[in-house]
Design a protein that fits this description.
- It is built from 16 helices and no strands.
- By secondary structure, the protein is mostly helical.
- The longest helix is centred in the first third of the chain and has 36 residues.
């Protein structure tokens, strides 16, 4: 595990001093990984707002037991669009944006391995967004079978409409899969081949390890989902019968193809957030990351085990008992490397000189909510519990504690932490802390009530329900509206800080990492000269510098430690 790449050449020739400064750059085709990263983040946040509007409409309907706000068919399309937008147009692109921006800087590279492929992968996302929105408004009706799109529900399309909401929706998902595969190939190649001299695998930041593990999952799992989506598209449009039981097809095969990727996709989403935690906790605790090498290896263990858990989503799909037992045990095993990370973060924080500013608050809040989501996740891995709460709001509550409580809040933590690096400006701390408390309170008000609702039998995907569930639904809806409001101080903070914020110092958090050795925002080619790494990351309280050419730190005398190649 000590090899480093032989060369790290820039993909495009630029002046080192050249820095992106105009907003017009972000609306153009660029091969600069930093521009592409911000393009991903801004585009995905736009769709995040759309998905949030869908969520508030859904919760508005669920304020009362009767279906009295929107028509039932429209409601089906609404929750299908909400899930689709939040996953394929917010979560995955936003995480891709963070990885695009940070990974080359963190490993001492000038750009991604394939800059044009990187740009092409991004520009597929607006196409996916347009197709997804168009599918909702087609005269033939929107997709109404949920973001998982199980057949035969997804194959029951209006007769006479070859182009319909469901077929356009499936096409959008397939294109999204192709974009993610392209991005994964680029990131994995960049990490393996373009690290700076001396940047051995066990000198990479933990965030790079988590992104690497996540993208390996993408490469192995996404082809199954993309193939399933293409086969389903053929069933819907040209009359094949891959999944149509009336013509000899097998809808359970689609579930296997779907979940073979879509449960590991949870780790694709959560692993980079774990990496953000591992970067933030040492900085704001002023301590090295506890058990760095074990934390790094645990990411790869999670990636490996994630390929052996998908059937736990199918306990109620006629799965035989022996298979249920095997996948129950494999699903529980994921908690071991995950628990290692949690204990390492707690040990890092313990006894540290904590600075509770906005990034640290979001990271701590996301960690607390993740631990709760992990407890309910272990419950759902158990066959008896999962059968009892299958297709209820308990599952929805668990899933949203992961997707919103952990992933979205973790993304906020990363955005605030690296905002000075991305923009050269400081955000407003008061607005950031207001944003955190609104988000943390709103998340718990929205999703905690879903657990008692599910345990007592309230089904998900319904527009009306038994009046006994009214109280908890009102609380959840009020939480959803508070979450909607919580984005306002964030938007105000980002826009006003970027345009008029205080200029940021080169390293405002006194962090240790290659990305903090370059100006803010970084020049086009990142580094005037490729750094030579001579020590492990997270050297808080240590005298050894990170690189042999760090202008801010003097090497010990004599500088006798050899550089690894």
């Amino acid at each position: 595990m000590s090899s480093t790449p032989l060369e790290n050449k820039p993909a495009v020739s630029h002046s080192h001093a050249e820095t992106v400064t105009t907003w017009k750059t972000y609306f153009s085709f660029s091969t600069d990984h930093k521009v592409i990263g911000i393009q991903y983040l801004v585009t995905s946040f736009f769709f995040f707002l759309i998905g949030g509007i869908f969520a508030m409409i859904i919760r508005g309907e669920l304020m009362t037991p009767e279906s009295d706000l929107i028509e039932r068919t429209f409601y089906n399309g609404m929750f299908t669009m909400h899930g689709t937008v939040m996953l394929f147009l917010w979560t995955f692109p936003a995480l891709a944006g963070m990885a695009n921006y940070l990974v080359p800087l963190m490993i001492g590279a000038r750009d991604m391995a394939f800059p044009r492929l990187n740009a092409a992968a991004f520009w597929m996302i607006p196409v996916v967004g347009v197709l997804t929105m168009a599918s909702f408004f087609l005269p033939s009706g929107s997709a109404q079978s949920g973001w998982w799109s199980y057949p035969p529900a997804s194959t029951q399309v209006p007769l006479g409409f070859w182009i319909n909401g469901q077929s356009v929706w499936i096409l959008a998902v397939a294109i999204s899969g192709v974009s993610s595969i392209m991005g994964a190939l680029n990131i994995v190649t960049t990490i393996v081949k373009m690290r700076a001299p001396g940047m051995t695998y066990f000198r990479m930041p933990a965030y790079v390890w988590t992104v690497w593990a996540a993208q390996i999952i993408q490469l192995f799992g996404l082809p199954a989902l993309t193939a399933g989506a293409v086969m389903l598209l053929f069933d819907v449009t040209v009359g094949t019968s891959f999944f149509d039981p009336a013509d000899g097809g097998n809808p359970i095969i689609f579930q296997h193809l779907f979940w073979f990727y879509s449960h590991p996709a949870v780790y694709v989403i959560i692993l980079p957030i774990f990496g953000i935690f591992s970067e933030i906790f040492p900085v704001y605790s002023r301590k090295p990351l506890f058990g760095y090498k074990v934390v790094a290896i645990s990411s790869m263990i999670i990636a490996g085990v994630s390929g052996l858990v998908w059937v736990h989503h199918m306990y109620a799909s006629g799965t035989p008992g022996w298979m249920r037992l095997i996948f129950m045990l494999s699903t529980m095993c994921v908690s071991v490397p995950t628990g290692i990370k949690v204990f390492a973060w707690v040990a890092t924080i313990w006894g540290g000189k904590l600075r509770l500013n906005t990034p640290m608050l979001f990271a701590l809040g996301a960690l607390v909510l993740f631990v709760f989501a992990g407890i309910t996740g272990i419950m759902l891995s158990s066959v008896p519990v999962d059968i009892h709460v299958n297709n209820t709001y308990f599952v929805v509550g668990h899933f949203h504690y992961v997707l919103y409580g952990t992933v979205t809040m973790g993304l906020y933590a990363g955005i605030y932490h690296w905002f000075p690096k991305m923009t050269g400006r400081m955000y407003y701390e008061g607005l950031g802390q207001l944003h955190f408390w609104l988000t943390f309170i709103g998340t718990n008000l929205n999703f905690l009530p879903m657990h008692p609702l599910g345990l007592n039998g309230m089904l998900r995907r319904v527009a009306s329900y038994d009046p006994e569930f009214t109280f908890w639904n009102v609380v959840a809806s009020l939480g959803a509206f508070l979450l909607g409001m919580s984005t306002l101080p964030f938007i105000l903070n980002m826009v006003s800080s970027w345009s008029h914020g205080k200029p940021a110092p080169a390293n405002p958090w006194r962090a240790i990492g290659l990305e903090w050795l370059v100006p803010s925002p970084p020049p086009v080619e990142n580094f005037e000269s490729i750094p030579v790494v001579i020590s492990e990351p997270y050297g808080y309280g240590k005298t050894e510098p990170l690189t042999a050419n760090d202008p801010n730190v003097k090497l010990p005398h004599p500088a006798s430690k050899p550089v690894e190649h």
